Amino acid sequence: MKLVTFENSARQSRTGALLGSESGATKKGQPSKDRIVDLHTACALYLRHVKNEAIFDRIADALVPTNMLALFQGGDTSLEAARNAFDYVSDLSAESPDGMVLGPGGEAAVYALGDVRLKAPIVPKKFFHTAGNFREHHEEATKAAFSHPVMPWIVFFQNTDAIIGPDEPVIYPEHLTQELDYELELAVVLKKGGKYLTPDEASSHIGGYVIFNDITARDIQRREMKSGVFSFCKGIDTFCPLGPWIVTADEIPDAHNLAMELRVNGEARQRSHSSKMSVKIPEILSHYSPMGYSAGDVVSTGTVSGVAAFSPDPKAWYLKSGDVMECEIEKIGVLRNPVISWQQAYGKKAGISVAQVTK
């Protein structure tokens, strides 16, 4: 399944799964036949019609919650219930003349993709970053004489309040940085918690995969790295695009065999392959596990070569207001986010300018 968090016309946040060809995800603004199955409503419908459950609504609340973090906290039980409900409603949708299906109370169980707003698929309790896992990224940093080497491999935490979803804007805080950069990454979503895991044990904790764009203010990063740590440069508001959905692990049998590409305004900037990780995902998960995992936690696996900071002409490649980033990973999809200025997001609304903020 491709699991999404979406907002319906009543502005309710719901868990869903993509039903269709994904054309709506790759060609924004064009008509799409893709649909979203509301997993909670689908589960209630399945329990009522297939399982003949009298209290179908209360069981659906427990099995397939409307919050993605709560869904993953249900582990395999909730994911299996969501799969059964998705398959059932998918069949009903295929038999329906317009593809639409109603839930037990007459509410929508299927939505047209264009009628809903996709949000970040999950906001985890903890977000673990991996840095320096792709040797090509370390090598390009060394070649570019970056102030500090991207040593293999380290962990730090992301500010989960900075998470945004597909098509939401990255806000460029011009009063804080002049070197805004991108970093395409594959991230793992865990379906159960644990501590002190072996690599084999860690593999069984993987619930799915999602695309992560690790936005970074390089000038701030250089200052922070003098102390040997960095976090503010990557944790500023909107610096954590995540999405467009979580692809469950059963649909990606080998996460180390995926093509990866990031484009800015249609131009390929990062192009690589997940097979180039120095340390594989089970070892990463095992290594961090003494800190303790909770179900729904997200773990990134590091970026690939091609970031602006290490290019032949960084100033030309750094992000600018009006740019559009597209992060694509094979078997997952495309995460698209525009860049807008701080002035666009806050200045005009507040009646102040960036210059005033920096005084």
Explain what the structure shows.
There is one protein chain. The protein has two domains: 2-119, no CATH class; 127-358, Fumarylacetoacetate hydrolase, domain 2. It starts with a strand and ends with a helix. The model is unreliable at 23-31 and 353-359 (pLDDT under 50). It has 359 residues and is of the alpha+beta class. A hairpin with a 2-residue loop joins strand 15 and strand 16 (267-273). The radius of gyration is 21 Å and the shape is globular. It is built from 13 helices and 19 strands. Helix 2 crosses helix 3 (56-63).
Which class best fits the helix and strand makeup?
alpha+beta
CATH class of the largest domain: Alpha Beta
Number of H- or I-type helical stretches: 13
Strand tally:
19
Shape: globular
CATH H-tier superfamily of the largest domain: Fumarylacetoacetase-like, C-terminal domain
Name the beta content range: 25-35%
CATH architecture term of the largest domain:
Alpha-Beta Complex
Query: What is CATH's topology name of the largest domain?
Result: Fumarylacetoacetate hydrolase, domain 2
For the sheet with most strands, the description reads: 12 strands, mixed
Determine the N-to-C terminus distance: 50 Å
The low-confidence runs, each spanning 5 or more residues with pLDDT under 50, are 23-31, 353-359
Task: Give the C-alpha Rg.
Answer: 21 Å
Average pLDDT confidence is 91
* Percent in helix: 25-40%
Tally of structural domains:
2
